[in-house]
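Annotators were shown the component list below and the corresponding predicted structure, then asked to write short factual statements about the assembly.
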Amino acid sequence: MARSLTVHAFAKINLDLRVLGLRPDGYHELRTTFQSIALADRLTFTRVRGPFQIECDDPAFPGDHTNLIWKAAQRALALARRREQPSGIRVRVEKNIPMQAGLGGGSSNGAAALQALCRLWKVKTTRGELQHAAAKLGADVPYFLEGGTALGFHRGDLLVPLDDIDPAWVVVVVPEFGVSTKDAFAWWDQAMKEGRERRDRQDGLNRRAKNVSNDLQPLVAKRHPIVGKLVRALNKEGAFHASLSGSGSAVFGLFSRRADAQAAARKLAGPRTFVTPTLTRAGCRRLAAK
Ligand code: C5P
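Structure shown to annotators:
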């Protein structure tokens, strides 16, 4: 029986993100294109005696039951129809994906933990059960079971795998502040309400900003003008596509050539600027266990 298991949990960017409306369950109806990137956290699961533990060098990373890794452990036990609380595993997390950045770090950790713990605890599940358990952890979590390029509908949890995009180099710039996903969607609700009120007075409000592929971007940029500046700077440096990722705060630019991505990253230099390639679905699978 393996004593430990190490896996990589990859980050994502949203190549586009459309918010189509508010759902009856309080979530938002989305249409988004997810894309894996090689930026990853490294998770090592080790069998130990005693309680479930999560260890990380980053003091901001929660080590308790609020962490999606912990919730994934509870879900894995529920799938095995075991009623006890998680125990007997220490999870060491090497955190490389910035938090509150719209890069899916927490969700990716949750998906990686769900799969790793089902393996370590020999939980027999169908793909459907695993997807269902992942969706309960969070709207983005099912995507991370697959990775690569995929369309997400509903809350982002109904997935249609797409052909892999041509490989690209991604410059990811993460401002020093984070954005809570909940807040970003509340800003969208507020903008819709104001838009409706304005439309009652004057016809024809065009709520979709031109050349912006993420509906949350104008709302985040309004509160944090640096976001708009970074998108413009990435375009100026030659990105063939630049946008906010998810609800931010990270902004990314796509480049065909690595050298061009590196040159752009040097120009935009900040403490949290990364150059990383896109990953295919097969690449995610191959590299996850390395
Ligand atoms: O599912 P998850 O916990 O990752 O979502 C975090 C928050 O983002 C939700 O509580 C909700 O406020 C918002 N959200 C949303 N619509 C989505 C996804 C997330 O309103 N499709």
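Statements collected:
1. The two ends are 19 Å apart (CA to CA).
2. Residues 27-28, 30, 138-140, 155-156, 181-182, 185 surround cytidine-5'-monophosphate (CB under 6 Å).
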